[in-house]
């Protein structure tokens, strides 16, 4: 159903976006990717060649989420838009709202451009960060598409604030519009890299495997494979019942201790590098009194939040890979790309 369609993918060199581009080209679509630096188009061409796909399936346009110029041209002639671009810093800024202008403003520019161009449907890459942060409910609570993070909470991170505000802005822009919106809300995204640019989400595993994380907090979180995230985005373009929905993506929950165990079993030669100790909860909570950044970490201590990914299965037809597979495939690709050495 996508053969011959021109589809705009914003932020096309991101971890998730690169997998989306590959999946779209594999299905016969022509991808127009937005780039701030046009020279980076060669990265996508290289990935497509490595996947045995035609580089003619991809073209680029130079735009900036912080600027109004260029978006009308970027969306012109596109039936669908994938908006994946959003700031995801390696380190959280001190100000809770520091990332909001770029995330929210960029989203508004893209969606207004899409609406003005008569785009049929926009698929927004949001995050579980816009759903479950800042809540103090029982750990038995299950979070789903009807939940929103509380930006007024003292324990919410700047990244979670930016994702929440950007997604809310997207729904506001297209409320009552003929242009449909679907939001994809993945948990922590692991899975294979397509090149040597790992992005922020792979940094945790890379630090562990490189021997640069001596200890870890007692913390759990949901994990989803990037290949499943890409398939969810592509399905969301055309499944009629997806319009107006938010889809939580989660293949299962892991603790940091679980991840260490997976890496130790898979790569016993790395055992000496991998962290062996948990940081006591009390130490983190004491430090949280002095640091707002540690306060955000302290709020996530304990078991993973419970997430309802049922609609992604029933509506989008997803069958999730296990979180263990996502960890192993990411680790394998870190070796393959030379980002971790034995």
From TrEMBL:
<feature type="domain" description="NAD-dependent epimerase/dehydratase">
    <location>
        <begin position="7"/>
        <end position="246"/>
    </location>
</feature>
<keyword id="KW-0560">Oxidoreductase</keyword>
<comment type="similarity">
    <text>Belongs to the NAD(P)-dependent epimerase/dehydratase family. Dihydroflavonol-4-reductase subfamily.</text>
</comment>
<dbReference type="InterPro" id="IPR050425">
    <property type="entry name" value="NAD(P)_dehydrat-like"/>
</dbReference>
<dbReference type="InterPro" id="IPR001509">
    <property type="entry name" value="Epimerase_deHydtase"/>
</dbReference>
<protein>
    <submittedName>
        <fullName>Dihydrofolate synthase</fullName>
    </submittedName>
</protein>
<dbReference type="Pfam" id="PF01370">
    <property type="entry name" value="Epimerase"/>
</dbReference>
<dbReference type="GO" id="GO:0016616">
    <property type="term" value="F:oxidoreductase activity, acting on the CH-OH group of donors, NAD or NADP as acceptor"/>
</dbReference>
<dbReference type="InterPro" id="IPR036291">
    <property type="entry name" value="NAD(P)-bd_dom_sf"/>
</dbReference>
